[in-house]
Write a structure and sequence with these properties.
This protein has 8 helices and 10 strands. By secondary structure, it is of the alpha/beta class. Bound molecules: adenosine-5'-diphosphate (ADP) and magnesium ion.
């Protein structure tokens, strides 16, 4: 495949194999996927179809067994752990279903954490963390601890933490899985807003209503991409047929 300059994610013949012989599981079985800069995508598919495995590779949290992965035109599949950690910190923000906030720290301190590794001085860390919290509408909550915040507010803190290093790519694995429908909408509105400012957003979800808020749906089955370009309208048709 020719390296595509407008792409931010380019997965080429990606395999991820767990175990060996009779216990072997092909979590990813020859995945090819290109996502362009500026897209807002969701990833859907049955449980066990390889969505989280793919997200972990896309997010440089894990390496494929074989294949090539170009992230922002860098070939990352064969990088060592130190290089991967550096790329991850610089280019990618993560949001998970569980918010993973540190309970003893305030919202502001939680959001400051990723900058410890980015060699930013402490005054600027505070300013940037406050600015990120403002972007998610939590400027009045910066001194609250996680247990003083609702689930939706905690997820917004996690989003602020994910964007504070100004990533080009935001990855979210079931980010609304623990939220009610109103706070789900708040989180999706923030993703849409971030996407309009240029951040590429890729989100795993099993909820069609959530996926329909994105521009493009990628469908996994049995470790493969079986549909790479579904539209929200396609998804509606699939649900009724
Ligand atoms: N660390 C692991 N060791 C062994 N098998 C795994 C591991 N992680 C995932 N799998 C298997 O790989 C397949 C894909 O899993 P996963 O990517 O978590 O699917 P999804 O996120 O779509 O539910 C499943 O069969 C799962 O059991
Ligand atoms: Mg999963």
């Amino acid at each position: 495949m020719i390296n595509n300059k407008s792409s931010i994610i380019q997965l080429e013949n990606i395999f991820k194999i767990y175990g060996s012989d009779e216990t072997e599981v092909k979590a990813l079985n020859d995945v090819n996927l290109v996502i362009d800069k500026g897209e807002y995508c969701s990833i859907m598919g049955p449980s066990g179809s390889g969505k989280s495995t793919a997200m972990n590779i896309i997010g440089c949290l894990d390496r494929p067994t074989s294949g090539h992965y170009y992230l922002d035109n860098l070939d990352v599949a064969q990088m060592d752990d130190t290089e991967l950690a550096h790329i991850r910190n610089k280019k990618i923000g993560f949001v998970f279903q569980q918010f993973h906030l540190l309970p003893q720290l305030s919202a502001l301190e939680n959001v400051m954490l990723p900058m410890v590794y980015a060699s930013v001085d402490s005054a600027e860390r505070r300013d940037r963390a406050a600015e990120a919290l403002k972007r998610v509408g939590l400027e009045n909550r910066i001194n609250n601890k996680p247990n003083q915040l609702s689930g939706g507010q905690q997820q917004r803190v996690a989003i602020a933490r994910a964007i504070v290093n100004r990533p080009v790519l935001l990855l979210a694995d079931e980010p609304t899985g623990a939220l009610d429908s109103r706070t789900t909408q708040e989180v999706l509105d923030i993703f849409t807003e971030l996407n309009t400012t240029g951040i590429t957003v890729v989100m795993v979800t099993h909820e069609p209503d959530v996926a329909r808020k994105t521009q493009r749906i990628v469908w996994f089955r049995d470790g493969q991409v079986v549909h790479s370009h579904l539209t929200p309208a396609d998804l509606t048709q699939m649900a009724v047929s």
